[in-house]
Amino acid sequence: MAKGGGFRRINILLSRQTVYNNLMSIFRISLAILLAIASSHSLCADNYDSITIEPAVVEISGRNRQTQLLITGRRSDGTFVDLTSSATLQIDDASIATLSDSLVMGLSEGSTRIQVQIDDFQHVIPVHVRGYSAYPPINFETDIIPMLTKLNCNGGGCHGRAGGQNGFQLSVFGFDPATDYEALTRQARGRRVFPGAVEQSLIYSKATGIVAHGGGERMTPDSQDAELLREWINQGTPWGSEDTPTVRDIQVTPALRLMAPHSQQQLRVIATYTDGSQRDVTRASIYSTNTEVIADCGPEGVIETGKLPGEAAITINYMGHVEVARVVIPRPGVVTPVRPDWFSSQNRIDDLTWNKWEQLRISPSQICDDATFLRRLMVKATGTIPTAEQIREFVADRSPDKRAVAIEAALNSEEFVDYWSQRWSDIMMVNSKIIGSRSAYTFYRWLRQQVEQNRPYNEWVYDIIVATGNTGNVGPANFYRSQRTPEDATKTISQAFLGVRMDCAQCHHHPFEKWGQADFYGLAGYFNGMQRDKLDDNRELVYHPGHKSIAIPVVNKAVATQPLAGSPTTADNTTDPRPELARWVTSPDNPYFSRLISNRVWKHLMGRGLVEPEDDFRETNPPTNPELLDHLASTLTGNQFNIKHLMREILNSHTFQLSSTPTDSNKMDDQAYSHYLIRRLPAEVMLDAICQVTGVAESYPGHPQGTRAIELWDNQLPSYFLDTFGRNLRESPCECGSSGDPTMAQALHLLNAPEIEKKIQATDGAITRLAASDRNEGQLITEISLRIVGRLPTQKEIQIGQQLFSSDNRRRGIEDFVWVMMNSYDFLFVK
Amino acid sequence: MLNKSKANRRDFIRMGSIAGLGMADILRMQQLFGSDDPSRSDINCIFLFIVGGMPHQDMWDLKPDAPSEIRGDFHNISTNVPGIQISDVIPQCSTVMDKLAILRSMTHDDSDHGRGFHVMMSGKKAGAGDFNGDQNNNQHPCIGSIVSHLGAPGVLPPYISLPNFLNSGGPSFLGPAHGPFVIDSDPAAPDFSVRDIALPTSVATRRGELRQRALQQINQLEEDADKIGKQVKSFDTFYEKAFGLMSSKEAREAFDISKEPEALREAYGMTSIGQCCLLARRMVEAGSRFVAVENGHWDTHRKNTYSLKELLCPAFDQAVPALLNDLEQRGMLEKTLVVITTEFGRTPRINPLAGRDHWPNAFSILMAGGGVQGGQVIGATDKQGAEVTDRPITPPDMVATILYGLGIDHKKILHTPLDRPVPTADGGNVVRELFG
Asked: Do the bridges between strand B159-162 and strand B290-295 make them parallel or antiparallel, or are there none, so unpaired?
C-alpha cells in the first residue's frame, strides 16, 4: 500500500527564493516534495501509482476550526491529479463531525472516521474533535479582522473607504486594528455590539441581513463566520491577550502543480502561529490570480484552469501573509519536444526560452526570413521602417553575419537615438503641459545626450535622482519640476526605476503588498525639504539644503528616512540625503533596478514583458521566466549597465528572430515567446512610416520641415493622428499611457482621412515620382510593396495590383494600390 | 459527488417534456429563465447619464413635509398625470409625465463617483482599485457593450457614446470590438462634424469601392483563427465595421446633425444635452442599438439651488421633453427605450455650503418609451428621501430591465476568456410593472 513511504523521510526545504529561481529543478523534484509532506498518507489505486491524502489524521482542536482535505493521485507518468472533489467521502459518526464538500467541521467532542472511496480504492482517515465544548478565546486582531477582510467589510468600497459608510468606518483591509476595535466597540454609543444581546448588535444584525444593510447580507446566521461573531460578542468583545500568538507564516499545498486544461486543483492553506501551533485557514484566505485566462481560484481555494496552456500564479493572502501557488499547464497530449539543430546554443537567452518550451511541451516557429527580420529589427530598435533600397541590399547580401551587422548598424543609427530619447521622455513624463516648454526641451536634450553617448544606465539615473541646479540648463533638474512633493517623487522613482508601485502604500498597508506606509514615508524622507526657487516664469533653482525627516500624516508618526528594507540615512540637516538614495537605487546589487530595465528592454523588443505590466514587480506578480529575467539583469550588471549590450544580445538571439507565424504546437502560446508576437506600429512610428512611404512629411508647428514624429520632444503638439493611435500621455511614469488597442476611429482614419489621401496624391510626393518614372506595371508593384510592407509582393498582391492598374489611368491605379497596401496588416503591424 | 447542475433553458424544456409538464408550465419556466424576445429586437436605447449625481429630492421625489434643511427650495407642481407631482425646477417635464416612469427606489452602496459610475453603467459592484480618472477602468462590461455583444448587429456601430467616452463605459472582457464608437465632439458646437466616416472628396465613390474590395482580399485572414495575432484579429473587426458604416449613405448621414431643421434643433435647445439628445435620436433612427449620452457638472456640493435652477435644469428641462415629443411624433417612441440615470442621488440634508453630497441609498432614475408605460411612479422613499421604503430597485435590476426592453435575455451567462460564467445582469430582476 504505502508505496511512497520510502520517500517520506526526504526533507527538502524550499524557501520562496528557490521556488522563484529554480522552477525547472523544482519540477524534477516536485514528486519528492509532495511525498515529503510528513503528515500525509500515500496509498495506491488501480489508475494511480499512489494516492496521497492530507492530512493523514484530522485534528479539530476547537469549535470554529476546520480542516480541508487534499487528495492527490499520482499517475505512472509522474504527473499528479487532484481527486479531492471526485472522491466519495463519508463520515462514520455524523454527530461528531460533518463534511461540507471536502471540508471537515466538528460538531461535538469525540473521535470518528472518514471513509474515502476512489473507484475501488478505499481508505479511512481518523478524525479527532477536541476542546469542542468551549469556544477558544477570541482575539480581535487574529480572528475578527481576517473575517472582516474576507467578507470585504473593510474594503475600499465599503466601510474601508475614507469617511466610511453610513458613519461606520474601518481601516482599509484592517491595517489599523486598534482604531477598528474602537469603532466597533465604542463608537455609535455602543450600539454596534451589545454583549448581552447578540442579535441586537448592529454588527451582527446588519451583517446577517436581519436589519436592512446597504452592503446586503454578508453572512448567514448558521455560518461559521456568524458563530465567530456571536462568540466574540458573548465573550464581551475581547481585544485579546497581548501574548496571543500571531500568524508567523502560511504554507500552501501544492505550491506548484502541472495541471491539465479545464481541470481543478484544491489548495490547502495552513497558518503557523508564533507559538508553533497550526490552523487550517483554507476557507479564510483570499485568493487571486495573475492570469485569469490560464487559471483562476475561487474562495474555497479551488484552482480552475482554462483552455490554454501556460503558467499562472495564484496569490494566497491570510492576515497580510502572502504565498503563491504556481500552476503550469503544458500542451495536452504531447511528448517533450526535441530541440532542433538550428536552434542556437550560442546564446544563453535561447537556452532559457527553450527550457520553458520543453516544460510546456511546445516547439518554436521557424527563423523568420531576411526581409521580415530587417523590418522587425528597424522598427523595434529605431522606430523606422526600412526603405525599398535597404531591403533589396540586405536580402541580396550573401555574408553569413549580415544579421549581426544590421543589428550593429541599427544600434548605432541616428534614429536609434531619436526613438529611445522619446521612449525615455515618455517614462520621465517630459510633458510641456506640466513642466513648461523650456523645461521639457532642456530635459529632453539631456536625456538625448545620455542615449547618444550610451552612457551607463545606472549613471544617468543617479544624476536624475540627485539633480541640483538651474532647470534652464541642468536637464535632469527638470525631473523635480513635475515631481513637486516628496510623495510624488517617491511614487515616480519607485515605479520608473524599481518597478515598485507605492501608490497604495502612501495611505495604508495593502494586504497583497510587501510595502507599507512606513516604507513609503521612509523613501519620501529623502525628498523632504527640497527647495524649488523660482528664477523666472520658465526656470527654477532646484536644491536640497539638508535632510529633514518626515512623519506619516494623520497619525503624525515620525519615520526614519531609509531605502526599502535598508538602514536609516546618515545625512544630517546640512547634507543632501539623495546621493545615498541614488547609490542604493542604482546599485548592481539592487535586484529591482536591473530587472526592471531588463524587462522594459525585453518587452520593447519582444512585444511582451517577462513581468506584465512591465513596471509592476511584486512577489504576487512573478515573471513568466524568472531565470531568463535574472540572466538579462546579470548581463546588464556584468556589463556596466550598457543597455545597447543587452539589446545586442536579445536581437542576436534566435528567440528574437523567430517567425511570427505560429505552428500547430505553439499557436496557443502568448507568453513563452515560441513565435514572435505581432504588434501594431506605435503611433509615432506609423505616422513616420506613412510619411516615408508617400515622401510627404508632416509639418509640426515650431519644428523644421521634415521633422519626424519620433524626433518630437513635445507630446503636446496637436496631432489627431498621434492622439487617435495613442501616443503616450506622459501623465504617469510608465509606458502605459500609450495605448496599442485598436478602435473604430483608427480604422476609419486609415481608410478615409483626407490628410493621408493628400499625401498619396501630392504632386511633389514619392507616388507622383513613381508614376512619372518609366517603370512597368510589374516593377511598380514590386517597388511599392518593398516601400510599404518591406518585402517582395505576394502572388495575391501582384494580381490585385494588376487589377487596379488595368484602368486607363496609370496614376490612379498606383494611388489605389498604395492605399490598399498602406491599409494592409503587413504594413500596420510588425511581423 | 454530484455534479453541480448546469442545466440551461433548453435542457430545462427538454427535461420539462420528459417530466410531462404542460406547455404553459414550460412557458412559465422560460419566463423564469429569461430568453431573447424577437419582438423587441428592433427597440433601441438612448441612455442619458447625468454625471455628478442627480438630486432626486429636488427633481423627482420632493419631500414638501420635511424640515427646510432637507426639503430644499423647490416645490411640487402638478403634471399632466393626475396624482403625480414633480419639482417646479423642471416645469416642462411635467408636460410629458404621461410618457415618463419615475423609479423612485433605486439603491446601491457606492458613494464614490467613479465606483457609482461603474455600478450604474454595468450593474456590477466595482472591485478593488481607483475608478476615478482612468476611463478604461471598468472591471465588468457596461450595458452598451453587453448590448453590442448580445444584440442583433446593424449598420451603425451598436454602441455609440457622445459627446465623449463615458467613465466605465468600456467593454472589459468582451474585448475592444464591443467598446463604444466615441463621437468625441459636442454636436452643440458650430463646427461639429464626425470625421473620417466617408471617403475624402478627392476619391470618387466607384473608386472607393474598388479599393475596398481589393483591400478585403489583401487582408483576408488565415482560416485557423488561433494562428492570427490577437492584435490583428481585433483590428480586423474594426475594419469590417468601418466598411459597413461607409457603404451606407443613411448611416453616414445619421452623423450629420445639420440635416435637422433649425426649428427642431432650437426645440431641443442649442445646448450640449439638447443637441446630444437630438443626435442620439438620429443614431437610433439609423439603427444603433445603444446610444449613451453624457451630461456633466451635476455634482452640486455647493449652491445646490442656484446650480440646479440657473445652470443645469433649464437645458435638461428643454431637452428631455423635446426628445420624448419628437420620438412620439415620429412614431419612434414605442421603439426607443429612453433611460435617464445617474451615479447616485444626493444627501437628504443640505450641507453648510448650501449643497448636497453623494447619496446612493435612495435615488430616482427615469424610463420612457420602448413599451414602458408612462405616467407611473414605482417605489418610494421615506419622508426624508433617505431610504427606500417600497420596492427597492438595484443596479442589476436596472440592467435586467434595459436588456429586457431591448429584447435581450438578461439571464444569459457571459463567459470570460477563461470560460468563467458571469451572469449578464448579476441576478437582477426586470421591473415588470414598468411595461404594464
From this structure: parallel
- The answer to whether residue A805 scores a pLDDT higher than 70 is yes
| Residue B223: Cβ-neighbour burial (10 angstroms; 0-12, 13-18, 19+) | exposed
| DSSP assignment of A52-70 | EEESSSEEE-STT-EEE-E
Are residues B300 and B356 in contact, defined by beta-carbon separation less than 8 angstroms?
yes
Q: Which of A203, A198, A208, A223 is nearest to A103 (CA)?
A: A223
AA identity, residue A622: P
Q: How far apart are CA B192 and CA B182, in angstroms?
A: 14
Q: What pLDDT, in 10s, does the model give residues B150-174?
A: 987 777 889 999 998 898 898 888 8
List phi, psi (to 5°) of A437. -65, -40
Per-residue buried b or exposed e for A214-253, using 16+ beta carbons within 10 Å of the residue's own CB: bbeebbebeebbbebbbbbbeeebbebeeebbebeebebb
Residue of B nearest to A755 (CA): B200
User: Do residue B332 and residue B355 come from a single domain?
Assistant: yes
d(CA A636, CA B70): 66
The domain that holds B174 is classified in CATH as 3.40.720.10
Task: Quote the domain boundaries for residue B373.
Answer: 42-194+255-435
> What burial class does residue A820 get, using C-beta atoms within 10 Å of its C-beta: 0-12 exposed, 13-18 middle, 19+ buried?
buried
Q: Is residue B17 part of a domain?
A: no
- Report pLDDT digits (tens) over A113-122: 999 999 888 8
Average pLDDT over residues A362-381: 97
**pLDDT surpassing 70 at residue A504:** no
Question: Taking a contact as any Cβ pair under 8 Å apart, which residues of chain B between 82 and 141 contact chain A?
Answer: 107-112, 115, 125-128
Pick from A296, A678, A752: CB nearest B231: A678
How do residues B306-362 score in pLDDT, each as one tens digit?
999 999 999 999 999 999 999 999 999 999 999 999 999 999 999 999 999 999 999
Q: Are A279 and A244 in contact (CB under 8 A)?
A: no
A744 chain-B contacts, CB cut-off 8 A: 157, 181, 238, 241-242
Q: Cell 482612468: give the residue.
A: B134
Closest partner residue to A215 (CB to CB) among B109, B157, B199 is B109
Phi–psi pair at A489, nearest 5 degrees: -60, -40
Domains of chain A: 1-135 (2.60.40.1080), 140-234 (no CATH), 248-329 (2.60.40.10), 417-586 (no CATH), 683-724+742-830 (1.10.3130)
CA angle B32, B36, B42 (to 5 degrees): 140
DSSP state, residue B54: -
Contact A156 B416 (CB under 8 A): no
Identity of the highest mean pLDDT range in B128-132, B192-196, B321-325? B321-325
Instruction: Specify whether the CB–CB gap between A229 and A203 falls below 8 A.
Output: yes
Amino acid A466 reads V
